């Protein structure tokens, strides 16, 4: 399989269709992508389509034959947090649906409408609410083609409920199936989206290619797994990403390179200072360490491997640290998860680490 390479400090020009404020949208050969990078949103939606046109309706686009609108609404911590169970998440999605239905019935149509909904998970375990309502026939309308149904796909993205809306002019399952398919290509990020990286990922997926992140100065590269959501970091040499969310929890990792000279060229000194000397009570990124334990290293790791349990406020975190000597630099790979998600994501973490290659 062919690869597409992208390098650190590379900024694309012309790829992004539009990027006003924190909303970005762009078109690849086969896909339209809508990305919301506003605080507490951080999601991207990939929609198959050959053509894209703007609509006069705010947040709406015409993708091929579909008029698609993107809507989001905040919710309160009283309504839902990701520490609550799936029942509360479903109740949140249903409450936003019911608010919309009440508005349509009480304020717009002045009559009841027939509605239906279903809850499902996509292949990565993300939960969605797919619902629709049927519009009454307008006997005295001057419009030749009338909307028969409105379809909606709703999901939680950080501190918002996001809804994708499509009107239907025929009463069939085509749009329902279309939205169900879109659910497999929705990314929810743990922090700010790297839009350039997102473009590369979608474009490569269209062509069934892989993308490779290459740092030739620090002599390593990473073949990026398709499931990884690449994020902005505070440094242009630090690589970061978040995992597909599980019950709206998004595990994260960074790959942080260090110059050998800062540790007198001693890998042992680096490992001790950054990982192995950490102990109970030490601070780690604002959290307090509870336990540390050396674990078995994956084959691609030529340094140390540690599990570190830490607590921040009332939240517990399970962290995994790996170190790698690339020949010119030392890499610290730091993975953060929760007790509920670490077992599910360990296979993905090791998949990621296996894709790191030291360059000669």
UniProtKB/TrEMBL annotation:
<protein>
    <recommendedName>
        <fullName>DUF4837 family protein</fullName>
    </recommendedName>
</protein>
């Amino acid at each position: 399989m062919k690869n597409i390479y992208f390098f650190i400090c590379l900024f694309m020009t012309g790829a992004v269709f539009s990027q006003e404020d924190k909303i970005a949208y762009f078109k690849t050969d086969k896909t339209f992508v809508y990305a919301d990078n506003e605080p507490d949103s951080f999601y991207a939606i990939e929609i198959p389509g050959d053509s894209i046109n703007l609509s006069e309706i705010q947040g709406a686009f015409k993708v091929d034959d579909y008029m698609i609108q993107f809507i989001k609404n905040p919710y309160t911590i009283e309504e839902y947090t990701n520490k609550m169970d799936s029942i509360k998440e479903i109740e949140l999605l249903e409450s936003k649906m019911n608010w919309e239905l009440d508005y349509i019935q009480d304020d717009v149509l002045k009559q009841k409408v027939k509605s239906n909904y279903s809850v499902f998970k996509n292949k990565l375990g993300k939960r969605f609410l797919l619902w629709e309502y049927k519009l009454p026939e307008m006997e005295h309308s001057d419009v030749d083609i009338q909307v028969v149904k409105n379809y909606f796909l709703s999901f939680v993205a950080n501190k918002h409920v996001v809804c994708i809306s499509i009107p239907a002019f025929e009463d069939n399952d085509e749009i329902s199936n279309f939205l169900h398919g879109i659910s497999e290509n929705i990314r929810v990020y743990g922090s700010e989206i790297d839009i350039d990286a997102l473009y590369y990922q979608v474009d490569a997926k269209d062509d069934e290619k892989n993308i490779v992140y290459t740092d030739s100065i620090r002599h390593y590269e990473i073949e990026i797994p398709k499931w990884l959501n690449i994020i902005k970091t505070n440094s242009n040499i630090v690589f970061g990403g978040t995992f597909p969310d599980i019950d709206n929890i998004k595990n994260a990792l960074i790959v942080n390179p260090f110059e050998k000279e800062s540790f007198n060229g001693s890998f042992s000194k680096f490992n001790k200072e950054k990982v192995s000397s950490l102990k109970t009570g030490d601070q780690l990124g604002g959290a307090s360490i509870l336990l540390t334990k050396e674990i078995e290293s994956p084959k691609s790791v030529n340094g140390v491997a540690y599990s570190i349990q830490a607590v921040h406020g009332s939240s517990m975190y399970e962290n995994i640290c790996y170190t790698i000597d690339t020949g010119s630099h030392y890499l610290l790979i730091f993975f953060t998860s929760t007790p509920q998600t670490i077992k599910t994501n360990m296979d993905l973490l090791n998949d990621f680490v296996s894709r790191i290659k030291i360059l000669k």
